[in-house]
Amino acid sequence: MSVATELQTRIPTSTQLFIPELVYFEPDALEYPKGQRIHAWATEQKLPIHITKSHNRITNLPGETELEKYRIAKRTLVVGIRKTLKFEQSKPSAEYAIPIATGCMAHCHYCYLQTTLGAKPYLRIYVNTDDIMDAAQKYIDERIPETTRFEAACTSDPVGLEHISGSLKELIEFMADQDYGRLRFVTKFHHVDPLLQLKHNGHTRIRFSVNADYVIRNFEPGTSSFSERIEAAGRIAKAGYPLGFIIAPIIWHEGWQDGYAQLLTKLQATLPKDATTDLTFELIQHRFTKTAKRVIEQRYPKTKLEMDEAKRKYKWGKYGQGKYVYPDEQANALRTFITEQIFTKFPQASIDYFT
Ligand code: SF4
């Protein structure tokens, strides 16, 4: 059976839009139109609504065990005001991370938010997007005549929240008018409908995170299926957005060459031709820190994710905490093989980086 036929005959169960189980509001968030809109939505959905003094301090989540609390936190939405308007750097994909949301409802075992969000894995939407865009404007102006790129998916998967927040819409339309500003974000969700009709002027690059079937099957619960993501990528390209794919994390597993070759073959077979003219790839090998390993083993005790320090190379980190990456020989094999696959199947595409 050809790959295309196989994809057509496999009837995908559609990944539903995220509906939280609990919603918290900071009182001041209700002064903003976005806060009021989300409050009206949560009321209509008959969701339990609570008030919290700060989006940084939700301490009374239900759950008997740590694991239960974690699972509930991933279904809890907190609506608040972003106070820190100093943007973090976001190399190598962009100059800055633009903070519109924090946290994610999916359960990718390898996700670095496990550690960066620590004890606060609940989801946060910030209602003061005007302040965030004002800050972005300053960052853009400072760097003129250089172009400044903002990554909107550093701390969240914003597409998974767009039906509630509408924040990507605001950023995309804001960036459409910026001669020196560009937006980019990556997603594992296919819920792109709210983005298709927007004025973007080609200033926003939308990337989909894809991977070998083994990785998606074993480590990405709660995300849209591969075929849903590719179908959404086709619609994004049709809407005129620059498109890209992030293959991350690239995982060395038994049969990895077949796995990654099949991934590129499936992409080639299913992506509309006109979606391949201005295509970028970003390649990120799997890495973990000691802290991440401990947290992942607690939260996903049955995970098959290989995190054996003895099989890895230690890479010193900026803040003392180093990362375990693949040894050079394996990293080179992964990079060479996947790069060749990309250029064979998408000769017009560019590879932004391998890290
Ligand atoms: S979809 Fe992205 S942000 Fe969400 S859990 Fe998976 S890796 Fe993390």
Automatic annotation (TrEMBL):
It holds the Pfam family SPL. It is an enzyme of class 4 (lyase). It comes from the Bacteria. GO terms for molecular function: 4 iron, 4 sulfur cluster binding; DNA photolyase activity; S-adenosyl-L-methionine binding. Keywords: Lyase. GO terms for cellular component: endospore-forming forespore. Its EC number is 4.1.99.14. InterPro entries: rSAM (IPR007197), rSAM_sf (IPR058240), SPL (IPR049539), SPL_Bacilli (IPR034560), SPL_firmicutes (IPR023897). PANTHER family: SPORE PHOTOPRODUCT LYASE, SPORE PHOTOPRODUCT LYASE-RELATED. This is Spore photoproduct lyase. The gene is splB.
